[in-house]
Each structure stands twice: as C-alpha cells, then as structure tokens.
Amino acid sequence: MALGPRLDIRQSQSLVMTPQLQQAIKLLALSNLEIEAFVAGELEKNPLLESGGGDDGPPPADGIDRELDRPTLAAETGASDDLIAQGLGGADSPLDVDHGADTFIDDGPGDRMESALGAGGGGMDAMTGGYGDEAPDFDSFAAPGASLQEHLMDQARAVLSGVDLIVAAQLIGQISEAGYLEADLLQTAHAMGLPLVEVERVLGVIHSFDPTGIGARSLAECLALQAKEADRYDPCIARLLANLDLLAKGALPQLRRICGVDEEDMADMIAELRGYDPKPGLKFSSDRAAPVTPDLFVRPTAEGWSIEVNSATLPRVLVNRSYYVELATGKQDKNAKAWLADCLASANWLVKALDQRQKTIIKVASEIVRCQEDFFRKGVAHLKPLTLRTVADTIKMHESTVSRVTSNKYLSCPRGQYELKYFFTSGVSNAEGDGSVSAEAVKSHIKTLIMAEEPQAILSDDTLVELLRARGMDIARRTVAKYREAMGIGSSVQRRRQKALKGKAA
C-alpha cells in the first residue's frame, strides 16, 4: 500500500471557548475589589458604559439596565457571544463548564472581623455629626511617623560626618525591619575601600543609637547591647547569652553549671532577658495589614439566614442607551459603525456577566450556609466535613466553577469573617462511624483541651486521643500530633518546659 498525502473533509462537534466566555469565567475567581478595578478599566475603554444610576428612580438590585430592548435569541440559533450577552448560555449557569480539556482555563487567583454589633450597639449620633459623645480622632489621620532608617540617619548626622557618615548610611540601609544588620562587614569594607576596623568602629557608633540593640548581627548581640545599656552585663549574663540554644531547650541545670549561679539567680537572669526587646526595630514599622473586605454578608433572620452581596464594593454598571442612539443616528463610516456595535455588544455582555456572577456566588454561598448551619449557630466545634464536589453536585454545577466562586472571597457573619474555602474541610471518623466530624472541629477540640491543661498535668498526645474518643472522635495519635503541629502548639515536653520557665520567672 503506497503512502502519500491527501485531503479529507470531516464533520465534528466541539465546545468552543470564546474570548468573552473565557473572560466571564475569569470574573468568577475575582473578589469584589478586583471586580471594581476591572470595571474601572472597562469604563475607561467603553464610552457606552457608565457607573451608578440615572434619574430613572432607584436602581434595580441586580444592576441590569432594564431599558435595553434587544431581540431575544434562541439558544439553538444564537451565536455564543450573543448567548452569553443575553444570559442564555446554559440556562441559569452559563459560566459553568467542564474544564477537562487542556484548552480550558485553570483556576484564577486564590481575619476575622469583630463579632457583629448587637441591636442598639451603634455609636452614630446625628446631633454630633455621627461620632456619638466623642469628637473624631484626628490623630488617626496624621501622617505616618519616620521610618527606622530615617530615625537612624537623623542620629547619624548629629554625631558623624564625612566618610564616617557615608559608611553609616551604607550600614543603616542594610538594617532589616526588625533592627538587625544584614550586611557582611568585610565585604562592605572591601567595596568601600576602607579598613575593616573603620567599618566596625562606625557600627559601634550605630549600636549606641536609639532604640537600644539596633544594628546587632545576632539575637545574643542584641540582648547584650540592651543589657549593657541597663548596666546588667556581667560574666554570668555573657555566658547565658552565649548559650541561648540551651535556654530555648529548657536545660536549666546545665545552664546553672555553665553560668556558675544558683536557681534563684538563674530565675532573675531569665526574667531580666524577658524584659528586653528581641526586635527593637519593629516599633518604627509603619506597615499595617490591609483589612479584608467581605464579599458576602450572612445574617440570621426569623425565616433562616439572609445572604447578601456586599454592594458597597460591587460596582453597578449600566449601558447608556441614549448616548448610543445619539451616536448611531449620526453620520458614520463603516469602521465607526463596526466599532460602535462592538462597544454595545461588550457593554451588554459585561452587564449580563456581572449579573450572572452575582447569582452564581449567591447560589454557592447559600448551599455552604445550608450545609454548615450548625457552625453558624454553635461554633467551629460543629463544623462538618464538606467538599467542592458535594456542593457542585447539589447545585448542579461543575466542581471547577465552585472552586472559582470560593477563591479569594470572604464571608462576614456574626461569628466573624471567614474565607469561603474555610468551610471545605476533610472529615475524620467518629465513634459511631458516620464520619461526620470535620478536621477543623477536631483542631478546635484539641486546642481547647490544651489551653485548659494545668502546669502539673500536661496532656500527652495519647491522653488527647483518649479524651477525643470520649467526645466521640476516633482519631489516631499521629493525626493528633499533625493537627497540634499545624496549629503551632508544641509537644507535651515543650509545653511543660515553657510553663516551668514562666512559673520561675513569675
């Protein structure tokens, strides 16, 4: 049989991901703040889009411009872009697709608030401008204080000049936020063409700056500088600082032999070290953690639970139909008409896509609240095991869609603020064998038991296993150790040493 090239015509069906559908799927993984930034960019590019409402009365809850009178397309005959613009791409879930193929997009980007205010707990007062009996705190609006480097350079300019000031600026620029020098003195001296002794001399001057302990190259040196400032640096303290690893292990008898002191003096020395600041530079840190803005609010009602999207961070987008009519009726060439039609299609798609995104988020959040109702009413100890597939099967969506909806989104409820991913945990079998205990609930029980233990009766992992089984949780010892380490809780030996040190220091 001879081999040779030939042309064949074949007919097949395949699922096509249009650019607009791909973008709509990406919108699911964005938080409300990210959506706001995305919409701001679209408002700049599309003249037919506008934010907020006009003079037509109160805006609709879903943010859709009801004045749009576009012909309805049948799902069987409409193009994919028009279907998604009309919200007909797959009935109530046009953004729900199976991402099994390699051409589909993967998942997008992935502490709690105070408890909800009770009724009548607000502090607003119309007679005092909304601040109750107190005036507004104008100090909170003040400019941030000087940084650590600026504070140190001000002191360096007061006592140094010439080459010494240049060396000090080089060293200060390499001091970390915690106040430790991260530079290699030998390399710094070689790079600046100076003897090492000159660089060390300038570093000694920096060690005298405020805050005490700044510019240290190790924890022992930082504490030693503070001990010298307090006139407490003696040979015993020096030997103790040289063996901080033994102090961390709780090897007090060995430390007493090295330092040549009795038990009472050792307790005084440890109490002295506890009074020092191991990170003196942090007091000048102006970085503040950005508060997390919730995307959803869950509140209890007489009928059950109320789930609302945070409209304060979710922009409302409308299509300016009057402006479109004005442009469409004017004199235009072929390219201008095509551009205007693209702008209208893009604007309508964005409005519909945002509306469908909101409906999808509400649907997923409602199922999460229904499955974890005991958590919202009783606390984390009643959190149930839950998977993405369980929620996806219940609401008739694909698992990847639920994953996108729960990524990078937060829920605010009377118990605090939680990421939606928090409610998806694995389960462990309980004494009855129904596997209805969440891993987070087990961690909560372990932490409660350890926090309530007495210094004379430290609970081992085996004891924790027995106590958990008494509460109906059948869990192995290695699992208890894994959960304990994940929460940053030390072993029974480490906790016993820590409490013994605290007791002696007290």
Write the SSE topology.
Blueprint: H1 19-28, H2 32-45, E1 49-51, H3 80-86, H4 148-159, H5 162-172, H6 185-192, H7 196-206, H8 219-229, H9 235-241, H10 244-249, H11 252-259, H12 263-274, E2 296-300, E3 305-309, E4 317-319, H13 321-328, H14 334-371, H15 373-378, H16 388-395, H17 399-406, E5 410-413, E6 416-419, E7 427-428, E8 437-438, H18 439-451, H19 461-470, H20 477-486, H21 492-505
Parallel strand pairs: 2-5
Antiparallel strand pairs: 1-4, 2-3, 5-6, 7-8
Helix pairs in contact: 1-14, 3-14, 4-5, 5-7, 6-7, 14-16, 16-17, 19-20
Physical arrangement of strands within the biggest beta sheet: 3-2-5-6
- What is the overall silhouette? extended
What is the tally of beta strands? 8
In the predicted model, the low-confidence regions spanning at least 5 consecutive residues are 53-94, 97-136, 138-142
Distance between the termini: 95 Å
Order of helices and strands: HHEHHHHHHHHHHEEEHHHHHEEEEHHHH
What does this structure look like?
With 506 residues, this protein is mainly alpha-helical. The protein has helices at residues 19-28, 32-45, 80-86, 148-159, 162-172, 185-192, 196-206, 219-229, 235-241, 244-249, 252-259, 263-274, 321-328, 334-371, 373-378, 388-395, 399-406, 439-451, 461-470, 477-486, 492-505; strands at 49-51, 296-300, 305-309, 317-319, 410-413, 416-419, 427-428, 437-438. The strands form three sheets. Strands 3-2-5-6 form a four-stranded mixed β-sheet, covered by helices on one side. Strands 1-4 form a two-stranded antiparallel sheet. Strands 7-8 form a two-stranded antiparallel sheet. A hairpin with an 8-residue loop joins strand 7 and strand 8 (437-438). Helix 14 (334-371) crosses helix 16. The chain is extended and about 90 Å long. 24% of the residues are buried.
